[in-house]
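User: My advisor asked me to double-check a structure prediction for Pyrroline-5-carboxylate reductase before group meeting. I don't want to rely on an old file, so could you generate it fresh from this sequence?
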Amino acid sequence: MKIGFIGVGNMAKSIITGWLTKKVFEPGDILVHSAHRNNYEEYAQKTGVIACTSNAAVVEKADIVLLAVKPFVLASVIDEIRDVTTGKKLIISMASGVSLEEIATQFKSKKIPTIRIMPNVNVEINEGMTAFVRNDAVSDIIYGQTKSLFDSLGRTLEIPEKDFSIFVALAGSSPAYIYYFIDAMARSGVKYGLTKKQATEISAQAVLGSAQKVLAGTKSPMDMVDDVCSPGGTTIAGLLAMEEAGFMTAVVKGIDATVLKDQATH
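Assistant: Sure, here is a fresh prediction for Pyrroline-5-carboxylate reductase from the sequence you gave:
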């Protein structure tokens, strides 16, 4: 099986790295092309993936084509590949805000098997979260096989298209917010005498372990908060100080802003 990437930005590279790490694909089974020749040719030389001379060439040679481009250029890319895209090719789009119906309209066909996904950058280390939805042209067998490919990159979840915007906020954009939180924790450690490296390691491991405990357990996150907060203890003092500064409200406002921005691209 050969898979082609049209667009070789950070997310595409993260997916490719995840697959190569898990040996889901060999470098020679991955085809790439983008509008930036220096970028994709240099990337191909570095990783061993195959650089194609055009978007159409990617489609002609690949069994699965992943459209890893910005929403505003998706229509022009589909114009380039429409004539060489048949019902035997599986199209996977991760263009934010562009629905399956819009993609079918651009292809001028509802018979092109199309899956819409939304991954996050943690697929690079096989700890990603990817949303899935398909059109009626995708068979159960093809859908299952494709989902398995992304299961190797972390977790997957099938959700309705109407929920993709909130998924973007909770999974797609949130790594940046979590990195920011870790950095804020680390800077507090520096304030009290730790090196930035030490403080970052401590903070990142605390976030990692806490997330794993949430996923592995049966309690709600708030119940787990209560477990850590001893009466009259240090944790409840810190938690109340964060809440006084607007911690939860700031998080919700950040998610709201992300959802509104994503919806504005529709």
